[in-house]
Amino acid sequence: MKTTALFVASTQENAGSILIMMGLMQLLKSKIDRVAFFRPIIEEEEDSAIRFMLEYFGLDQAYEASYGMRKHQLETLLGHNKVHEAIEAIMEKLTRLRENNRFVLIEGIAKSRLSSSIDGDINLILAKNLDSDFIAIINAKAKTVDAIVNEIKIESEAIKHQGVREFMMVVNRVDPDTIESLRTQSRDHPSLYCIPETPELDCITMGEVKEHLQCEWVLGDPNDWDKVIKTKLVAAMTSDHYLTRIRDKALVIVPADRSDIITSTILALYSRYFPNISGILLSGNVPLAPTIRRLLEGLESFGVPILSTTMDTYHATSKVDAIKAKITAHSERKIAVAMGLFYDTIDHQDFLKKLDTVATHHSMTPLMFKYTLFDKARKNKKTIVLPESEDERILRSAEIILHQGVANIILLGKEEEIHRREALLGLDLAKATIIDPQASPLREPFAHALYELRRHKGVRYDQAWDAMTNKTYFGTMLVHQGLADGMVSGATHTTADTIRPALQIIKTKPDISIVSSVFFMCLETEVLVYGDCAINPHPNAQELAQIAYSSAQTARAFGIEPRVAMLSYSTGTSGSGEEVEKVKEATHCARDLDPTLIIDGPLQYDAAIDPTVAALKRPDSVVAGHASVLIFPDLNTGNNTYKAVQRSSGAIAIGPVLQGLNRPINDLSRGCLVEDIITTIAITAIQAQEGN
Questions:
Q1: According to DSSP H, which parts of 298-411 are helical?
Q2: In this structure, are 25 and 171 located in the same domain?
Q3: pLDDT over 70 at 116, yes or no
Q4: d(CA 463, CA 500)
Q5: Residue 230, class by beta-carbon neighbours within 10 Å (0-12 exposed, 13-18 middle, 19+ buried)?
Q6: Whose CB has fewer CB within 10 Å in the chain, the N or C terminal residue?
């Protein structure tokens, strides 16, 4: 029977179901182009899970269409023995949601949230009537292995007894020390997955404190809202006693007029001998002393947020204690941790195989493409060097990449300085390798290697020695010597700064004389490859052929079957001129480079991508109307076209992705976002897998 819905429900509250729902939705959207989210029963207030799923995954559905009924409505119907009426009402809303979607991910309500006025599990009853396969989530928090195994058997029997198809079962929040024992005792249960407890996901953040206490944001960067709080410290003692009590990732709650404590906290932050707190909450209805405020505002890179509340210390502390941790669409760090846990634990290939009865669809959405990148990178994890460790965006990106298991990371810079910024930003870079080029024992052999490579160009050994203090040169040499698989730079450096060392050290592939680039243009339902839109202003015919050849190889490496269109203002023999002749010659040269290449040119853009136009202008072409790789005749045309398509259609442009080098080096825009850096790292890792 075709699976068109999955029903997920936890047996108890606080099972961490949002982690599983995020992972499942990501997997589903990697294969199916229109997936909806639905909760049959919600509480009385606005449902945060629905808001999160709609916003984070960009689901095209209204909030009101995303749930069946509120809990009090259900229990009223159940109290009057109107089970069928309740199910019919929920099914009616779900049916309307299904009309515009190909799959629905359904999350039930925890059984413990409902009264016992119904004979049986309402989630299983709904799953059966909605014809949904079922995923049960078991909360293993503070339970023995025997108790969990027993619960697995009971839940599995209940699913079978109700006549529902069990898709898989997830045991979440398992004590890491007992997880292997649990797997061993449950090995006979098919498709059972155990996810270890991760305390950080239960920690509240500075942003949640600000929201729940309606605090004033006194000082700090909005990026610090995501800092987690592992403990709290009420500072009502003298400074010397207070300093002995500071703990890592603590929230310090202190009256605003305790300038001594505030000053001591600042000093502790800049001392290597004290832990790094997550934030400060100033209590009491008194202003911060002007001299203290001026002191704070004059500090460079002050990475600890300071909040202020009118509550007294007692009530502020009680309010903080009452906050329940949650994940929102803006909780980048928690999302990264959760996604990493999910992918480390759940066999997503097995999951996707079970969905093979879902009708296949050949469209490729931007989210599908991004998932494909991360998934491919994880399968053969590579090491990527990031030379710009002084940039906050780089450090935030490195943390997310490491948490999600996309690549191993080498950061270049002074270890003490990187750890200081890591602490101030509230990051976890424990899995990263840190190398200081100036102090590294690799500096001497790298300098010697550079000297040997460049002495025919007049480079002296002392110049090569000095060059190894340049982090871009050092990072490039790490790649050249095989100690890293690729490098991503450009957040603070120019394109020339990134490419020059690569050309001098790594050089181009044997059959390629030119470094070029492509953009992955993620349209609504497909991904096209545009080249070259960033590097070469006026390529000649031979260079254009090499760009086409390299672009086709890049497309194939990322799962896009290359059908190459050589673009011009003329299609076929309809026009003439120097530029048209260049494209014709380039097309022939590209075929000589790779006789198997599916390529045609010259083609106009509309004839390349529109089957209707292609049927009129180039009816016998196997590329026209179906091109996946589009090669522009010059940089002026390519750069303007990609930006015009990006801005006018809302397409996502990923790139530039460099190609033609012996090993992958990629350039970032200096205005890049964290998301851009993460994607570029994944792309670089995949290029390394493919031998660039």
A1: 313-321, 332-345, 348-354, 366-379, 392-403
A2: yes
A3: no
A4: 15
A5: middle
A6: N
Q: What is the mean pLDDT of the chain?
A: 88
Please report the DSSP string for 253-268 in residue order: EEETT-HHHHHHHHHH
- Residue 251: C-alpha distances to residues 300, 317, 320, 382, 611 (Å): 21, 10, 10, 37, 61
Tokens of 232: 């709290």
Tokens 């003692």 correspond to 237
**Using an 8 Å Cβ cutoff, are 676 and 669 in contact?**
yes
Contacts of 318 (CB under 8 A, 6+ apart): none
Mean pLDDT of 103-115: 80
Cα distance between residue 506 and residue 479, in whole Å: 8
Whole-angstrom CA distances from 646 to 73, 438, 519, 651 are 46, 42, 11, 5
Q: What is the pLDDT of residue 627?
A: 95
229 three-state secondary structure: strand
- The amino acid occupying position 55 is E
Same-domain check for residues 37 and 167? yes
Is the per-residue pLDDT at 361 higher than 80? no
- What whole-number distance in Å separates Cα of residue 631 and Cα of residue 533? 9
Q: Structurally, how many domains does the chain consist of?
A: 4
Note the pLDDT of residue 112: 63
Q: Which tokens go with 215? A: 């605090």
pLDDT tens for each residue of 194-244 = 999 888 888 888 889 998 999 988 887 777 788 889 999 999 888 888 999
CA neighbor of 133 nearest in space, from 406, 285, 357? 357
- The answer to whether position 327 is within a domain reads no
What are the beta bridge partners of residue 282?
Answer: 254, 308
Whether the predicted pLDDT of 175 surpasses 50: yes
Is 438 exposed, middle or buried, given 0-12, 13-18 or 19+ CB atoms closer than 10 A?
exposed
Whether 685 is covered by a domain: the verdict is no
Based on the domain organization, do 289 and 220 belong to the same domain?
Answer: yes
Q: Given the DSSP bridges, would you call strands 516-522 and 652-659 parallel, antiparallel or unpaired?
A: antiparallel
Residue 393 tokens read as 């965006």
150 contacts: CB under 8 Å, gap ≥ 6: none
CB 281, CB 251: distance < 8 Å: yes
DSSP state of 340: H
Range of the domain at 391: 362-506
Read off φ and ψ for residue 384, nearest 5 degrees. Answer: -115, 130
DSSP lists the bridge partners of residue 280 as 252, 306
Give alpha helix (H) positions in 110-249.
Answer: 122-129, 145-162, 179-185, 206-213, 239-243
- pTM value is 0.70
* Strands lying side by side in the sheet with 67-70: 67-70, 35-42, 103-107, 5-10, 133-139, 166-174, 192-196
Q: Residue 115 has what pLDDT?
A: 58
In the sheet where 216-219 sits, what is the strand order? 216-219, 306-308, 279-283, 250-255, 231-234
**pLDDT score, position 363:** 59
Asked if 639 and 533 count as a contact pair (C-beta separation under 8 A), the reply is yes
Based on the domain organization, do 28 and 143 belong to the same domain?
yes
With tokens 């998301």, the residue in question is: 675
